[in-house]
């Protein structure tokens, strides 16, 4: 059967776009006083500079919702939280109101999925009023159970931050965690020296939140976050494993490989999932470069049989496809290697180590072929 790389790349781009378009919409409420570091936190965790470039829309008297067209994340911001007890009570009532409204809508895209309560780690103590706020919020949230995370912001002084975390934890609040962070590195200069405090903690915030989110929102979180490459890789690997299990679960059923197109839908769906998790802009030339340097030869139409023998040559000791079929296990192995190689490619693009242009050079292609070969060898 004919196997057209150009056509396949088009299919992949279509699948990627659809996958990204169908991501559920994640909504996070961010509470805390002005100056706590909410905007800095949001800008450091999420791509797309939501705070500067997003559009804020008032949803209640104390809350505005910041969104951006085509971006599956909204932030419910609560400006003026420091303006006294009345204001804080109103924020709580309105936030609870929005949470209940979201649940009543039965639409996951409209629900508030998590609350980040931000406290500056350098405050000298936790204010009893803030503890009180959190307790009353928890009471109201008893049925709705939206997870609350206390984010200790600007925690560049480690021992002070630790003491603060301990003191808050001792209050036994109904929160899923107290996470110290320094969202952006801090540079302190005087005449004698320069001290650089490195940013930290955002990866922990992502992991904690990811563990609590329903499955369908995990991919969205990965798509919008830019704080943890490790987390992206972890979920991308899980997507590869899921694709392989779903398609070749038992591993015994022979896959008629003369018809390489059999494999293709599984692999295209897998590539779409990985791309959505990385949140990168992927175009046809990238996919073409990837496909031709792994399963096929440069841009031409090749035969399914050729594709298979090309791949088989890369797996030491597997031999050739007997009678035009390979075992499901081998198909799974090839798919896994392909997925891992694609994750590596995404990682390199994410780090800016490889560009769209590099991919089309013979050096870039050779690098990708090597990647795929290495992954195949690992599986043996
Ligand atoms: N270096 C550094 N500065 C921070 C950080 N978070 C907050 N800041 C500083 O604190 C100020 C107030 O932060 P902002 O994010 O605007 O707080 P918001 O009012 O809660 O949105 C900013 O102008 C920053 O100078 C951080 O993680 N690192
Ligand atoms: Mg702000």
Note down, in words, how this protein is organized:
The protein is of the alpha/beta class. It has two domains: 24-224, Rossmann fold; 228-379, no CATH class. The protein is 52% helix and 15% strand. The chain contains 15 helices and 13 strands. The protein has helices spanning 5-21, 38-45, 50-53, 84-104, 128-140, 158-169, 202-212, 215-224, 229-248, 264-278, 284-294, 304-314, 328-350, 356-360, 362-379; strands at 2-4, 26-31, 55-58, 64-68, 71-77, 114-120, 148-153, 177-180, 186-189, 194-197, 255-256, 301-303, 325-326. The strands form four sheets. A seven-stranded mixed beta sheet has the order 3-4-5-2-6-7-8, sandwiched between helices. Strands 1-12 form a two-stranded antiparallel sheet. Strand 6 (114-120), helix 5 (128-140) and strand 7 (148-153) form a beta-alpha-beta unit. Helix 1 (5-21) packs across helix 10, helix 8 packs across helix 10 (264-278) and helix 9 (229-248) packs antiparallel against helix 13. The relative contact order is 0.12. Mean pLDDT is 88; it is low at 298-304. The structure holds guanosine-5'-diphosphate (GDP) and magnesium ion. The site of guanosine-5'-diphosphate has 14 residues, from helix 2.
